[in-house]
Amino acid sequence: MINFNSVSFAYHDQAAVVIRDFSAQLAAGEFHLVVGKTGSGKSTLLNLINGVSPHLTGGLLAGDVDIFGFNTKQFKPRDLAEIVGVVSQNPRNSFVTSMVEDEMAYAMECLGVDPKIMRQRIDEAAELMGLTEILQQATESLSAGQQQRVAIASVLVNRPKVLILDEPTSALDPAAAEEVLAALQRLVHDLGITVIAAEHRLERILQFADSVIYVPGNAMPISFGDPAAMMQMSEITPPVVQLGKRLGWNPLPLSVREARKFTNSIIQKLNDITQVINRADEELVASTNAVSVRYGAMQALKNLNFEVYKNETVAILGRNGAGKSTLLGVLAGLVKPLTGQVQINSQDPAKIHGFDFIRQIGFVPQEPADLLLHPTVQQECLFTDRTAQLPKGTTAKMVSQFLPELDFEVAPNDLSEGQRLLLVLALTMASAPKLLLLDEPTRGLDYDAKSRLLATLRCIGCSGTSVVIATHDVELVAELNARVVMLSAGEVIAEGAAREVLIDSVAFSPQVSRVFSPLNLLTIEEAVDAIKLAG
Amino acid sequence: MQLTQLFPSQRESRWVHPLAWWGWGLSAAVVAILSNSFITHVLVFTAILTVLITFRSTRSWSNAIGLLIRLAIFIVLFRIVIELIFGVHFGGPVLMTLPVLDLPNWLGGISLGGKVGSTGLVAAIAHGFKLATVIIAASAAAALVPPSLLLKSLPNAVYEAGLVTVIALGFLPALSADAKRLKTAAALRGRPARKIRHQLALLFPLIENSLNRAVTLANAMESKGFGRIKTTKFNNMTVSIILIAGMMLMILATTSLLRNPLSITNLTILVLAIFLIVISVALSGKLKLRTVYRNLEFSQTEFSLLVVAILLVMVSVLLNTNELVKSLVIFGLLLSPIIICPKPPGGLTK
To answer: Which residues of chain B does A431 touch, with a Cβ-Cβ cutoff of 8 Å?
Structure first.
């Protein structure tokens, strides 16, 4: 049992209170989900549970956090190590050792567990997390999903009563996310472990939650309760809940299964959407011709042919390691293909540099913050004006178009994740590139930031720039109604309109299409319209 | 004796204790120092490379062999350059004549450049190669065992210092990946970081990234209970101080022993240093800082490897036969790990 007793918390350097007067009792052996926008205080709430805040982060804690009888004011995180296990947002950065088995042993070595029983505990945890085959491998060589499971296993060995996870699935493809969530589900149901997870991708995780903690942000009161009740009041909801709210379904469905109860009866009355094929311009913007890329022993791309036409939006889907990022790298001339040709407006991208490059290609990498080099937004804008040889103020205009509320004297690092992405997007679009490439743009974004990104991308898509997005986020692809190219192990396995490819896929279909299967509806708007039409 | 014991490739693969490898490597270094024969150096070098290649694993420092070979080439070339500049022509046919630069008297009156003789050049190559062999022999052990395993066998007194080193080593690849990413990002903004000034601008985000990573790691270690077990009897700090004092005395003793071998004071310091080190290691064993999972065993194999090391030193000091015979004996002994030791786990990829 975890007891929050009128807990308030503030960091030293900020006058603002992050959490104000929060009281709740989280029952043992349940799955608790923390929901909230980025920067709302979700991570702080998680940190409070095992005392990382305030012991390591600093800050002022009022009230008490009691975890199975231990007050975090008196006990440091290290003292609670066999009660609480923590899996951080980026497990790769939290590995102390370099091998899976050693990483699992490390936590036990710290606690002085008898070496004789270590072996057995490692075997059990590996079994539980499906890691038996890879115990002897280097953590670096694993996929993101495997790393996530190693991070969980390496705290499970100490038999914690509580497991805390910060965004366990946001970096994972749908299939890997399902594996991780299934493993967590097993921990709750079979071992009675209390799981507390914060996550943005509610469409993946909500159905597993026994209770929801809704953190609205800005020190507004945190609510805690039954998932359906919390979703009723939350601004942040997955598509299936939004659909339920729009159509007035009661009780509010939290999963596809629950929503099917409402749709099963009306599906016969509804009609398929007739796809308007707005054929893209015939003008080719970028293409790869039989491109192969190899990293060491791994073949990242195999004889890949790929075209982007003017004015179109292409989504590249596929599992982690399918070659999505590599393809973007090839298109931007950053990755040199072993064989084959790449052309951007009949030029080799690897040979375009500086000024010419930003007039041709805009690239927003997985960490958009990498592109920000200056102390203020204003200086970033002036820098782009200079390098792109634009009249002074052009970039700033673009930035205020994407981010009307932005203060230009603020440091880019102080912006929220969503704002930073839009800023980078504006800086990139200022030079009006012919081709815009985005790598995993919605990672770590809340629904709010995502809908702003979506609006911006739609606006870019009809301004003469072709957009290519590599993503796991099927909901985004559905909303964009992009052309989809599905990669697997470096090869194209499916290609076509989102409506055809996504609906045909098991792992990559959006929630709305699952609710209305076998119809070909993709988005909430389409579903609402279809129901209206049918009366 | 069973057949499988004779053929190590049939035995279960495991890591050999790093101390045994260090013994083997250091004895090879001693052999190379004591010998002045070029043939011996070539054979020692070849034997070490052969062992490194035989026991390389995907999990030890994978590029270590390439790094060591590059280091060797650099040392030899450096020695040749020194010879060309400072060397004095003392025999043999003149190969080439460099422009002469006579330094003024107050700089010792040396003349740089001048005639380069074949004798001098050959001697320089041989000397450079000797140096390279010594350095590679002394660092071979580091390439044979991953640093994390070395950490396991460290005495508790230096465990924390060792852990810091291992973590720092793990940070290096991440740091270089970060630097590469930031350089790409600069190019994406339309200004490739070619000039030093532009590269310096990337330093700030690089440091920030590393700090973030360090904080994540520190949080993770704290949450897993790092540094929790503290003993009351002997303070950890005290043990470390005794050890460091012992080490410093050791350095003092060895440097003065090299200058003045027969001094009672020096010998006293040496004995005291050894005493302090032994005490601190013994005390630290009592500090129960942590338990060790699958601690490496020091078995028959490791003892055999140490015996080989002692034999190597004895042969190179005591054996007074034909130089060629002696180097062949040394060569054979150096290659013996191939028969004695089991293969490391992990093997080779493709």
So the answer is: 190
Spatial contact of A83 and A161, defined as CB atoms under 8 Å apart: yes
Nearest to A115 among B173, B201, B293 (CB): B293
Compute the distance between CA of residue A340 and CA of residue B324 in angstroms, rounded to an integer.
56
Q: B12 CB contacts (<8 Å, ≥6 apart)?
A: B342
Q: Per residue in A292-317, is it b (16+ CB within 10 Å) or e — as a string?
A: bbeeeeebbbbebebbbbbbbbbbbb
Q: Which residue in the block uniquely carries the two structure tokens 């969980």?
A: A152
Shortest Cα–Cα distance, B244 to chain A (Å)? 24
**What three-state secondary structure class fits A342?**
strand
Which residues pair with residue A437 across a beta bridge?
A363, A468
If we measure between CA atoms, which residue out of A120, A461, A34, A495 comes closest to residue A304?
A495
Hey, are the CB atoms on B226 and A50 less than 8 Å from each other?
Answer: no
Q: Rounded distance, CA A20 to CA B95, Å?
A: 85
Give the pair of three-digit tokens for residue B115. Answer: 């005639």
* Å between A364 CA and nearest CA of chain B: 8
Give contacts of A82 with chain B, Cβ < 8 Å: 225
Structure tokens at A377: 């937004």
Question: Which three-class secondary structure state does DSSP give residue B154?
Answer: coil
The structure tokens listed for A460 are 């870019």
Neighbour count for residue B237 (Cβ, 10 Å)? 8
In chain B, which ranges are continuous DSSP H helix?
Answer: 3-6, 18-34, 38-54, 64-86, 118-144, 147-152, 159-188, 196-201, 203-223, 236-259, 264-286, 300-318, 323-335, 337-340
Q: pLDDT of A346-386, one tens digit each?
A: 899 999 988 899 999 999 998 888 898 888 999 999 999 99
ipTM score of the complex? 0.84
Contact B137, B72 (CB under 8 A): no
- The pLDDT tens digits along chain A (535 residues) read 899 999 999 987 666 788 999 999 999 999 999 999 887 889 899 999 999 988 988 888 999 999 999 999 999 999 999 899 999 888 888 898 888 998 999 999 888 888 889 999 999 999 988 899 888 888 887 888 889 999 999 999 999 999 999 999 988 888 889 989 999 999 999 999 999 999 989 999 999 999 999 999 888 899 999 999 999 999 889 999 999 999 999 889 999 999 999 999 888 888 888 776 666 567 899 999 999 999 877 889 999 999 999 889 999 999 888 899 999 999 999 999 999 999 998 899 999 988 899 999 999 998 888 898 888 999 999 999 999 999 999 999 999 988 888 889 988 888 888 888 999 999 999 999 999 999 999 887 888 888 889 999 998 877 889 999 999 899 999 999 889 999 999 999 999 999 989 988 888 999 999 999 889 899 999 999 999 888 7
Q: In this complex, which of B59, B190, B222 lies closest to A388 when CB atoms are compared?
A: B190
Instruction: Examine residue A518 and say whether the peptide bond preceding it is cis (omega within 30 degrees of 0).
Output: yes
Helix (H, G, I), strand (E, B) or coil at A12: coil
Q: How far is A509 from chain B (nearest CA, A)?
A: 32
User: Model's pTM, two decimal places?
Assistant: 0.81
Q: How far apart are CA A420 and CA A426, in angstroms?
A: 10
Amino acid identity of residue A21, one-letter, is D
Q: What is the residue type of A320?
A: N
